[in-house]
Design goal:
Length: 484
């Protein structure tokens, strides 16, 4: 596969149905993390551009084309977007591969079909959004209407660029809202291509707008804009906190999908081969740049040595390589800044006395690559076990029994996901009840589907994405009373 990037154009903003340059200021560059070369120049939307995008989104809410579109027509529109994603599968996979350094094969087989699936799933929703009629004493009739919230600001991260755009746009449009999307500054290209496909599918002017830019400029201008009624955010816990604080100033609703330090538990009675392979996948998939990464592997003491030996053995065969290579399973990290931060975490782990079992160093050559890294017998109170590293760095922690496992697993600020491997069904059910997490996987890890709700507790977030429950966030109830 050629790696030249001639076909990648300089990007513009989508406001209403027109592609525009940013109104002021210099553009910024998007870099290919695998070769450190500039891929494209990205428009930096100013506060005035954000105003224009919010205005276009506000107008579209009231427009005949969008505001009065039949629910079934909205469903067909979403189906067409999903179909267009699939028919442009290679191009979209290539964009995320080059822009984010994600392995082409995993984007092609994972992110792109999952993005299409989000649109195909939510295509079925518009005709099922119902209000309720209330029991009456004959003097009144009371019922509810479920209405769109309004203009949704969607702010997304760089680890699953196309998929995160789909997870925000599909439910927001299914429920009749309009969207202003701000992609992550590192990875704008697939979101811009998706927006083109949405226009091609027939999304009316203003229903979807895209403002590219940095977080503290464009993102901040969008969140504080009084014309937005909701912020749907995925990213770091610290920015999530800030977004909630700013959105509260004008009473915009928020959904937050934030970070994690997810525990992945292996009991001695588990299928150890399957569990060990899932443990490696759980941390090294997408180079560990996954909010649900199983970054704390808790292993029962009686099988600890056996599991660690298998894990180190399989990890020694996991060599970072060019993400365009169809066999690549581990690409580079997103940026040099991020790589430096991850390396710092590793150094801190070593200085705190954790046992470095493999990795910790970088392969020679260009690109933000890091060798997969495993620390053994980690203290759950040490910094590497507490902070979200967001890289290919695993902490293995031994435990004695079920009570010990639960105490360690739940002793964290995060509550996004947890995994358990055991063949004892009663224990599995006890763990499901007692693990503090929005998602618990039993004898599997990182399973996702647009039909199933997804989100966190504790400092991992607010609200649930995907599934029919997304309707609760993206709509509001209007109560209507008739005197009879
Ligand atoms: P981030 O949270 O800064 O960025 C996510 C999005 O928020 C980007 O689109 C960014 O432009 C935007 N943003 C940043 N500051 C903003 C502000 N003040 N107002 C509005 N929007 C703003 O994440 P970043 O800096 O790229 O990564 C830092 C760490 O965050 C990672 O190392 C990782 O620990 C965590 N992270 C977690 C993700 C998740 O999926 N839960 C995804 C990305 C990062
Ligand atoms: Mg990039």
């Amino acid at each position: 596969m050629a790696s030249d990037t001639d076909e990648i154009r300089g990007a513009k903003l989508l406001i209403g149905d027109t592609w525009r340059e940013a109104s002021e200021g210099p553009a910024f560059s998007s870099v290919n993390p695998a070769d450190e070369k500039v891929l494209a120049s990205i428009a930096h939307a100013s506060p005035a551009d954000v105003d224009a995008a919010v205005e276009a989104a506000t107008q579209a809410l009231r427009s005949k084309e969008w505001g009065q579109m039949k629910p079934s027509a909205r469903g067909r529109l979403l189906t067409r977007i999903g179909d267009l994603i699939l028919s442009n599968r290679e191009e979209l996979a290539r964009l995320d591969c080059l822009d984010a350094g994600k392995p082409y094969t995993s984007v092609f087989h994972g992110d792109v079909p999952a993005a299409a699936d989000a649109f195909h799933y939510f295509a079925g929703l518009p005709t099922t959004i119902l209000g309720e009629t209330y029991p009456s004493d004959g003097t009144h009739l009371a019922y509810t209407l479920r209405e769109p919230v309004g203009v949704v600001a969607a702010i997304i991260p760089w680890n699953f660029p196309l998929l995160m755009a789909a997870w925000k746009i599909a439910p927001a449009l299914a429920t009749g809202n309009t969207v202003v999307l701000k992609p992550a500054e590192q990875t704008s290209l697939s979101a811009l291509r998706l927006a083109e496909l949405c226009l091609e599918a027939g999304v009316p002017a203003g229903a979807l707008n895209v403002v590219t830019g940095l977080g503290h400029t464009t993102g901040a201008a969008l969140v504080r804009h009084p014309g937005i009624q909701m912020v749907a955010f995925t990213g770091s816990t610290s920015v999530g906190y800030e977004i909630q604080r700013v959105a509260a100033e004008h009473f915009a609703q928020v959904t937050l999908e934030l970070g994690g330090k997810s525990p992945h538990l292996i009991f001695a009675d588990a299928d150890l081969e399957a569990a060990t392979s899932a443990a490696a996948q759980g941390i090294f998939f997408n180079c560990g740049e996954v909010c649900t990464a199983g970054s704390r592997l808790l292993v029962q003491e009686s099988v600890y040595d056996q599991v660690v030996e298998r894990l180190v053995e399989s990890t020694s065969k996991l060599v970072p390589s060019n993400p365009l290579d169809p066999d690549c399973r581990l690409g580079p990290l997103i940026s040099n800044e991020h790589l430096e931060r991850v390396v710092q975490c590793i150094e801190q782990g070593q200085s705190e006395g954790a046992e470095l079992l493999i990795g910790g160093d970088r392969p020679a050559g260009e690109g933000f690559f890091l060798n997969p890294t495993i620390f053994g017998r980690v203290d759950n109170n040490s910094s590497i076990a507490r902070e979200e590293i967001f890289g290919p760095v695993l902490c293995v922690i031994p435990f004695v029994d079920e009570a010990d496992a639960l105490a360690i697993a739940n002793d964290t600020w995060s509550g996004l996901a947890a995994g358990v491997w055991t063949r004892d069904i009663q224990r599995a059910h006890r763990m499901v009840r007692n693990l503090q997490a929005g998602t618990v996987w039993v004898n599997t890890y990182n399973a996702f589907n647009a039909m199933v709700p997804y989100g966190g507790i504790k400092r991992s977030g607010l609200g649930r994405e995907l599934s029919g429950h997304a309707v609760e966030h993206y709509t509001q109830l209007k109560s209507v009373w008739f005197g009879l």
